């Protein structure tokens, strides 16, 4: 399914998006490339290890720690070089920094759900992988269903209000996912999962749009690079956070934090609660946005208002 969608998206980009070029070419920051590449490889490999139930969590944390150290050296280098691979000066722009930093925290909480939910359905509910996948279709439907309303919601309420309130809704829905039990009526289970998909789509679309609201044409290339790196990294970190939260819940109950732990429905409930709390904490960051943030790209402008 991903291949035909990918081909369709590629064709749409080549047809609709303008092929813009920068004013000048910059030399490749080789030192920054290798340092950041090694840091991201270590981080993502560590998160990949952590996502496997039979993995040794200490080994995973070791790779993550190594990635953090290498990332610090990469950051120090890029602060000093004239043409850094990743330009962190863009983080001085409030709308961009909030979507990258606070948005990363939100994505970690939200992206832990696709890891935790199928496991909860199979281990906690006793469903098959096929049955679990059918239930998760409600998330996909929510993601797709929200796309038709995203622009109108942002025009009506503005980016700040949507980011604040929807992050709070997403956090509560994540916690609600953990409160589901095998005895929960199927329509209610599907409703919670569907609403999570709606909220997830709304928040991610809001962040992706607001990120470039105040970015000049000259900075779009460097801003896009840092945004893409942060986005991809937090997907892996969300999985790792979900796995770690699950293991911590089992450890508090008396299980080993290493490989071989047996998880109960209660462990998943606590893991969902932790993911929900992380998402709720991100609300504080969005409250720092200006009330008119993103108004220059239509946020808070009702349809038709710009034409009058």
TrEMBL record:
**Name this protein carries in UniProt:** Putative transport protein HsrA
Q: Which Pfam families match?
A: MFS_1 (PF07690)
Concerning SUPFAM superfamilies, the annotation shows: MFS general substrate transporter
Query: What is the predominant subcellular site recorded for this chain?
Result: membrane
* Record keywords: Cell membrane, Membrane, Transmembrane, Transmembrane helix, Transport
Is Transmembrane there in the keyword field? yes
UniProt organism field: Herbaspirillum frisingense
Q: Which domain of life is it from?
A: Bacteria
Q: Which residues form a coiled coil?
A: none
Gene Ontology annotations for the cellular component aspect, listed alphabetically:
plasma membrane
InterPro entries, per the entry = MFS (IPR011701), MFS_trans_sf (IPR036259)
Q: Which GO terms describe its molecular function?
A: transmembrane transporter activity
Q: How does it sit in the membrane?
A: Multi-pass membrane protein
Q: Where in the cell is it found?
A: Cell membrane
Residues crossing the lipid bilayer are 28-45, 57-75, 119-141, 162-182, 188-213, 225-248, 268-286
């Amino acid at each position: 399914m991903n291949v035909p969608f990918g081909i369709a998206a590629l064709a749409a980009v080549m047809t609709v998006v303008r092929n813009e070029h920068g004013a000048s070419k910059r030399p490749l920051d080789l030192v920054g490339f290798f340092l950041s590449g090694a840091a991201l490889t270590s981080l993502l490999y560590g998160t990949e290890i952590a996502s496997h139930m039979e993995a040794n969590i200490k080994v995973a944390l070791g790779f993550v720690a190594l990635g953090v150290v290498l990332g610090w050296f990469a950051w120090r280098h890029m602060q000093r070089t004239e043409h850094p691979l990743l330009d962190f000066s863009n983080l001085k722009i409030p709308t961009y920094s909030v979507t990258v930093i606070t948005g990363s925290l939100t994505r970690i909480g939200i992206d832990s759900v696709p890891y935790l939910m199928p496991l909860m359905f199979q281990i906690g509910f006793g469903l098959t992988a096929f049955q679990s996948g059918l239930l998760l279709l409600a998330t996909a439907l929510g993601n797709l269903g929200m796309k038709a309303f995203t622009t109108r919601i942002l025009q009506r309420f503005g980016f700040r209000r949507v980011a604040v309130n929807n992050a709070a809704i997403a956090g509560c829905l994540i916690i609600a996912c953990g409160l589901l039990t095998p005895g929960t009526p199927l329509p209610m289970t599907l409703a919670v999962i569907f609403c999570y998909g709606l909220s997830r789509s709304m928040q991610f679309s809001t962040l992706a749009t607001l990120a470039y609201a105040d970015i000049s044409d000259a900075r779009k290339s460097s801003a896009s690079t840092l945004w893409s790196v942060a986005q991809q990294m937090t997907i892996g970190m969300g999985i790792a956070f979900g796995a770690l939260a699950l293991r911590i819940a089992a450890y508090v109950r008396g299980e080993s934090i290493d490989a071989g732990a047996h998880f109960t429905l209660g462990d998943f409930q606590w893991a969902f609660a932790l993911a929900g709390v992380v998402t709720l904490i991100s609300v504080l960051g969005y409250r720092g946005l200006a009330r008119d943030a993103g108004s220059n790209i239509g946020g808070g402008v009702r349809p038709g208002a710009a034409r009058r």
